[in-house]
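thread: overnight batch results

M.L. [08:02]
morning all. the overnight job finished for the chain we discussed friday. pasting input first so we're all looking at the same thing
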Amino acid sequence: MGTLENESTKLPVISRVGAMYLLPNEIGPMHLMFAFDVVKPLEENLRLHAGTEILFWNQITLRTGFVNGYDNRNISFGLGVQKSAFQFDYSL
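M.L. [08:03]
and the structure it wrote out:
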């Protein structure tokens, strides 16, 4: 029998609201999407997330993002490749 069986544990509570906008028309061979989130953990500071994704020829995706409210990160980058059933995604 576990020792935590009769102890209460406070679960994390997070409120999140966000929006995404996909430009209705292609710009040459690319689709452009913007996203924005506001995140509020119950006992922590407010965090803001914003990002952009550019899809070229429905196969190659470039992503960049920015987050505010974290101690050790703020900018991210990503790359995706999709060809039929194969998909590869990498982020930094």
